[in-house]
Amino acid sequence: MIKKAYQIQINMKTQFHISSGIMEKGFIDNYIIKKDNKTYIPASTLKGKVRNNFRLLLGTKMEDEKAEKIISSIFGGEGYQPAKIFFEDLMPEEQKEISIRYGVAIDRYKRISKDKALFNYEAAEKGTYSGKVIIYFDEATIQYKEDLEMAFLMVDAIGKGRSRGLGHCETFIKEAIL
After folding, report:
1. What would the pLDDT profile of 87-103 be if each residue is shown by its tens digit?
2. Average pLDDT over all residues of the chain
3. What is the DSSP string of 100-113?
4. Burial class (CB in 10 A: 0-12, 13-18, 19+), 28
5. pTM above 0.70, yes or no
């Protein structure tokens, strides 16, 4: 087993919204996720993006069944197939402001705004978020190291509202010393 650590840095080019899933009573309809009252990018969000990108890369090189076995061996799978990749939450380098944005729901068929469809949500300001990822490679998976690194670099948007201009980012990865 070969243990590799990577330093991940995501530069948010625009505001972003990763929903907390909590519907609180109050002025705001949809809150962003926070830890200790700071915005952050959850490890699960980044893991999902990287896993999907890795699937896309392997899908161009091999058949789906073989690609899925490799993905499951690294990211974990059904039954007792534990993950060999461990993500850390990405924390901001400095405290970020949170703004409130407004929107109107559109009826896509009629192409008009829906009645009583004004909503608002929190959005974190752009900035730099960083954290670590640890990967345990074995003889079967070390050959996919470059593809996995490329899957990180392919992360170009995080959160929801990308069609509204939210969540666009640039990702950097470098090998860290253990």
Report:
1. 999 999 888 888 888 88
2. 90
3. EEEEEEEETTTTEE
4. middle
5. yes
